[in-house]
Structures are given as structure tokens and as C-alpha cells.
């Protein structure tokens, strides 16, 4: 890109993704380039949109793992291995299902 080329992240109309209020953590703003119907994006604009979409996807995955760390009692924030987070999450879900079966059995026994 030369000095006279417009910056693809600021060219044309843009749409800014606002950070989620409920997450508490500030997310980086993702800016996508949009144009009126019938106008085509340049290659630089397409690339900028692709990068913004990929950053948003990665941030959503990180947010999901952060939520799992908060919910699963055997995980701590220092444990950032995705494999470990998923493994402990599966173990916790199995534990919860077992607890549910026990409670359902107690309820059905109490009703007799």
C-alpha cells in the first residue's frame, strides 16, 4: 500500500462491534468494512474484513474457555491448556449427570 492509498480499515462505511457489557472484560473493537449494495470490496478491504472476522472468532473461543474456567470447580484461571479445560469440563458434566441420577432415585424412592 502506498502513501496515497486509503487505509482499508477506514475506507467506506464501517460497522463497529461494541464490547459485550455482560462479560465484564473489555474486548477489542472489531471494525468491518461495508459498502452500499452493488459496490465491490477491494482485495485490501476483503483482507481487512477477513482479519477482523478471524479476530472476533478467536475472541469468542477465548471467552468460552474463560466461562468454562469460571463454571468448572476443578479449574483455575492459571490453567490455560485447552485440552485440560475440555477434559475437566467433560469430567464435571459426567459428575453432574451422576448426581442428577442419584437425586432422581431419591425423589422416586421418597414418593413410594
Describe the protein.
The protein is mainly alpha-helical and 112 residues long. The chain contains two helices and two strands; from the N terminus they run ββαα. It has helices at 43-71, 82-110; strands spanning 13-17, 30-34. The longest helix is centred in the middle third of the chain and has 29 residues, at 43-71. Mean pLDDT is 81; it is low at 1-23.
Q: What's the helix and strand layout?
A:
Layout: E1 13-17, E2 30-34, H1 43-71, H2 82-110
Antiparallel strand pairs: 1-2
Give keywords.
bHLH_dom, mainly alpha, two-stranded antiparallel sheet, elongated, 2 helices, 112 residues, 52% helix, disordered N terminus, RNA polymerase II cis-regulatory region sequence-specific DNA binding
